[in-house]
UniProtKB/TrEMBL annotation:
One of its GO terms (molecular function) is hydrolase activity. It comes from the Eukaryota. Keywords: Endonuclease, Hydrolase, Nuclease, Nucleotidyltransferase, RNA-directed DNA polymerase, Transferase. CDD domains: RT_LTR. Residues 94-183 form the Reverse transcriptase domain. It comes from Austropuccinia psidii MF-1. Signal peptide: none annotated. The lineage of its organism: Eukaryota, Fungi, Dikarya, Basidiomycota, Pucciniomycotina. This is Reverse transcriptase RNase H-like domain-containing protein.
Length: 356
C-alpha cells in the first residue's frame, strides 16, 4: 500500500499538495457590513519575532498557501499575525478573533474521541496516518479569501488555503474527510486510562483550597510518586465488543470517592480472557460526602451508568459491588425522594442489569 501510494507521502522538502475538489473548499458565511474592528494594524514585534514571521511568510509563499496583496488594492479586513511557540518550534497564525465574532458557526458534527476509538473493536492491525499540514492542503473559495488577510511588517498577504485559527476549520476539515474517504479509513491512537486516582490525590487537591498552607508532607509526596508511577505504568486496554456482555465494577462505600471500571470477557488467542476497557473516577462533593454507605454506593452506580451509557445502553451487563445491601435497596419500597430519583434514572437499564 505504501509503495503504491508513494506520491501521497511527503518526504524531505517536497512541495505541499492541494486537494483538487472545488466543492469542498472552505466558505465563510460572515454577517455584513463588516465592522471597523476587522481592519486592524500589525502588532509590535521584537527583532526575534520578526525573524520568525519572515521565515514563516516565505515558507507559506513558497507553498502557495498565501499570496501577496498589492499596495494599491482596497483592503477591507486585516488580521495581525501571531507566533505560537511549542518546544522551541513556532507556528504562524492569524488573530482571527474579531472575524470569528461575525462568522456563522459550522455545526457539522465532530465525533468524540472515545466513540471513534471504539469503532476499532475487532481490528487486528491499526495504522495511524498524519496528514501533513492538513489545513494548508485544502483551498478557500475565492469569495472568502478576502476575509483571510494577515498584516505584518512584510505587508498584507491573503490565504489561498485554510489557515490556522479559524473556528469553522475543524468542522470543514472533518466534512472534507467524510466526503473523500467515507468509511474507508478508521483513524486511531493509544490513550492511557485514568485509573481511580481521586482517593490518592485527595491530599494534593487540599493544597488548592483557600487559606491552606502549601506544605509538602510525606503523605503528599507519596501521593505524587504513586500517581506518577501509575500514569507511566498503565495496564493494556482492550476495545469493546458490543455483541458481548460487559462487567461493571463499582466501589464507593469503602473509600471517600466514586470509582468504576468497565471490563469484558473476550476470546483472545482461542482462550477466554477478561480485559479492561476503561476506568472512571471522581471525588465526592461536600453534600454527597454526608450520605450513608448505602446511598453512596447507589450514587456510584447511578453516576457510572450515566458516564458509561454509550457502552451499556441496550447492552447486557453485570454489576459487581462489595456492598451487598445495594441489591436489596434496588428492590425495596421507599419514600426517600433521592433514592426514588436514582431508581427512575437507572430504570432503562434494569432489564439487562444483574447485581452481583
Amino acid at each position: 500500500m505504501l509503495r503504491k501510494n508513494r506520491p501521497a507521502f511527503a518526504i524531505g522538502e517536497e512541495p505541499l499538495c492541494k486537494i483538487r475538489i472545488h466543492d469542498i473548499e472552505l466558505y465563510l458565511d460572515v454577517e455584513r457590513p463588516y465592522p471597523p474592528m476587522l481592519r486592524r494594524p500589525p502588532y509590535p514585534a521584537s527583532l526575534e519575532t520578526r525573524k520568525e514571521i519572515e521565515k514563516h511568510i516565505n515558507e507559506l509563499l513558497d507553498m502557495d498557501v498565501i499570496r501577496k496583496i498589492g499596495n494599491n488594492k482596497i483592503v477591507e479586513i486585516t488580521t495581525p499575525v501571531l507566533i505560537t511557540w511549542n518546544d522551541g518550534q513556532s507556528r504562524l497564525c492569524g488573530d482571527f478573533r474579531a472575524l470569528i465574532n461575525y462568522t456563522n458557526a459550522d455545526r457539522y458534527p465532530i465525533p468524540r474521541i472515545p466513540h471513534a476509538l471504539d469503532k476499532l473493536e475487532k481490528a487486528k492491525y491499526i495504522t495511524k496516518i498524519n496528514w501533513m499540514k492538513g489545513f494548508h492542503q485544502n483551498g478557500v473559495k475565492p469569495n472568502s479569501m478576502k476575509l483571510l488577510r494577515i498584516i505584518c511588517h512584510m505587508g498584507i498577504h491573503e490565504y489561498n488555503r485554510i489557515p490556522f485559527g479559524i473556528n469553522n476549520a475543524p468542522a470543514h476539515f472533518l466534512r472534507m474527510m467524510d466526503t473523500i474517504f467515507q468509511e474507508e479509513i478508521l483513524e486511531g491512537w493509544m490513550v492511557k486510562p485514568h485509573q481511580t486516582f481521586s482517593h490518592i490525590t485527595s491530599s494534593l487537591y487540599k493544597l488548592c483550597s483557600k487559606d491552606v498552607v502549601f506544605e509538602i508532607t510525606k503523605e503528599r509526596r507519596d501521593a505524587y510518586e504513586k500517581i506518577r508511577y501509575e500514569l507511566t505504568n498503565a495496564p493494556v486496554l482492550i476495545l469493546p465488543d458490543f455483541e458481548l456482555p460487559f462487567k461493571l465494577y463499582i466501589a464507593a462505600a469503602c473509600i471517600p470517592d466514586l470509582g468504576a471500571a468497565l471490563h469484558q470477557r473476550q476470546i483472545v488467542g482461542g482462550e477466554p480472557r477478561e480485559g479492561l476497557i476503561c476506568y472512571i473516577s471522581r471525588q465526592l462533593k461536600d453534600s454527597e460526602a454526608r450520605h450513608g454507605a448505602t446511598q453512596t454506593e447507589f450514587l456510584c452506580l447511578v453516576w457510572a451508568l450515566e458516564k458509561l451509557h454509550y457502552y451499556l445502553e441496550g447492552a447486557v451487563f453485570e454489576v459487581y459491588t462489595d456492598f451487598t445491601a445495594l441489591k436489596s435497596l434496588l428492590n425495596m419500597k421507599t419514600t426517600n425522594t433521592l433514592i426514588l430519583r436514582w431508581k427512575i434514572a437507572i430504570q432503562e437499564y434494569r432489564g439487562n442489569m444483574t447485581i452481583i
